[in-house]
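sanity check this:
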Amino acid sequence: MSPKGRPTQDKRDKRFEIRLSANTYETLEECSERLKITKAEVIHKGIAMVKADLDKKK
């Protein structure tokens, strides 16, 4: 069986599950729709933004 998805150097083999309030989920959906990216990609971008902010404060 062939692997699914596009080949990448940044293998995403870790899973993390969270519970969101209805309000937070709606915000996530809105961001996803407005940016025309997946909800997972919104979360990835958010993590990168927090990391960049922390790196500035060092």
Remarks:
- The longest helix spans residues 39-56.
